[in-house]
Amino acid sequence: MATPASTPASAPAPGPELRPPGSRLEAVVQKVSSSPVFARIAPRVLPPMDKLVHRITGGKVMISQYMLPSLFLTTTGRRTGQPRVAPMACLPESGGTFLVIGSNFGRPDHPAWTGNLIADGKALVEHRGRTVEATAQLLEGEARAEAWAALLRMWPPYATYQARIERQIRIFRLTPVQQGTAGRDS
After folding, report:
1. Region for 85 from its dihedrals, namely left if φ exceeds 0, alpha if ψ lies in -120 to 50, beta otherwise
2. Which residues 6+ apart lie within 8 Å of 56 measured at CB?
């Protein structure tokens, strides 16, 4: 089992970053993102904006990546059988795995993608222009507690989200499937 990366959460893997770690801007954004108003507005605004910018830039940019490490997760709809794409924050781990959290901005219901992963643990992960097949594991017990602590170090507002809802926020580890074919995404 992979363990969280030993680098501090304020020092994510190289990539776009508009603010220095621990900046005033980060504190303000975290405070705003913890508000109930943000929880009502953000799900309607941020994912569509991320998808649009991602499409316009040919898969090179996500708006959310400037605040947190981010990826696009493609799951199979459990009712429709159709591909469902969701942009989300992630925590890259050593060994190439990712933690993703079904916070749903602190809203009462689990996000649909989490149910899709429970029904079918296969997914596609697009991170920094590279797409890989992955399997998802719903974390429980000690593994969940360790992941939760790492995610809180990366983004403290997750604690606020959990405090205002009754459900336990789902956390998944996405593990890339090793491809036997040469040349894929190399």
Report:
1. beta
2. none
Q: Which helix (H) or strand (E) holds 135?
A: strand 130-138
Record the tokens describing residue 59, joined without a space.
């898969």
DSSP 111: P
As a dihedral over the C-alpha atoms of residue 168, residue 108, residue 70, residue 13, rounded to 10 degrees, the angle is -40
In this predicted structure, the answer to whether residue 17 has a pLDDT above a threshold of 70 is no
Q: Nearest Cα to 176, choosing from 93, 104, 114?
A: 93
Predicted local confidence at residue 2, as pLDDT: 36
Q: What is the pLDDT of residues 149-185, one digit of tens each?
A: 999 999 899 999 999 999 999 999 999 998 654 444 4
Whole-number Å distance between alpha carbons of 129 and 6 = 24
Q: Is pLDDT of 4 > 50? A: no
**Which residues face 74 on adjacent strands?**
85, 124
The two tokens of residue 110 are 């689990």
